[in-house]
Amino acid sequence: MSVRWTTAVLDTNISGGLAVAHCAQGFLVDDNGALFSRDWLKGQGLEVLCEHGIGHFDGQPVFLFELKGEQDVPGCSWRGLRQFMLEGDFEIYKVLGYAAQIATWAREHRFCGSCGQPMQQIRWERAMYCEPCDLRFYPRISPSMIVLITRGDEILLARSPRFVTGVYSTLAGFAEPGESAEDCLIREVREEVQVEVKNIQYVGSQCWPFPHSMMLGFHAEYAGGEIVMQPDEIEDAQWFRVDALPPLPASRSIARYLIDLYVARRSGLAEPVLPG
């Protein structure tokens, strides 16, 4: 099977190729999706903050147009990144997930955070450069730990007030400076449900459709403590048997993968594959 999507720093002076148009509200789409002819997009009179070459899709160069905001284009509408994750071609989602990360970085680094002068895009690497300060700014990745806690045939699931009604998921949180992945996991579990864990094992990772976010997935066993929910963060948390689970996260998410993997192993079923 051929590789459909690869990232690369491309010179925006080259002609042709494909392009995606992005703003804070999402991606421009038409009936064929979010990948457009670059030349066609250029002809739409869009207010473009910056353009970045981000890679190749099916052998064609792909460019990102970061826009000032939503703009009307005949026959097109706007769609959030999460919808692409839950629906359609996962290879397209990978293109758009990467584009969204680069778009956020490019928008946030148009000016130097030290002196306020306009930044220059470096052609040969993914960096913005401030000549007066001699500073380079690279895309930022924020690691987040997500963990499935198990107790035999039971798994600990919780729901946030921000979740879709009725849906329960695994616990997660962002790493603090100086923390290891394991330290972050232990702290987040204590904060959210006041439970202790042991036998922490890394399972896999997934780029999440939020700015800079990389989800590192773990499995851990229950070591002690009673569930005490963190106010304002956890609406409900319970132990569920693997044969009596509540509504779960979307099937393409790493949270769902962690759950499905453990259920498969306890039930003797074929193990799922993490989309990526």
Brief description of this entry?
With 276 residues, the chain is an alpha+beta fold. Helices cover 21% and strands 35% of the residues.
Structure description:
There is one protein chain. The chain is of the alpha+beta class and 276 residues long. The protein folds into two domains: 5-108, Nucleoside Triphosphate Pyrophosphohydrolase; 142-266, Alpha-Beta Complex (Nucleoside Triphosphate Pyrophosphohydrolase). Helices cover 21% and strands 35% of the residues. Strands 1, 2, 3, 4, 5, 6 and 7 form a seven-stranded mixed β-sheet that branches. A hairpin with a 2-residue loop joins strand 5 (48-57) and strand 6. The longest helix has 19 residues, at 90-108. The model has no long low-confidence stretch (mean pLDDT 93).
CATH class identity of the largest domain: Alpha Beta
Reported CATH architecture of the largest domain: Alpha-Beta Complex
Order of helices and strands: EEEEHEEEHHEEEEEEHEEEH
CATH topology (fold) name of the largest domain: Nucleoside Triphosphate Pyrophosphohydrolase
Return residue spans where pLDDT drops below 50 for at least 5 consecutive residues: none
Q: What is the beta-strand fraction?
A: 35-45%
Q: Briefly note the structural class of the backbone.
A: alpha+beta
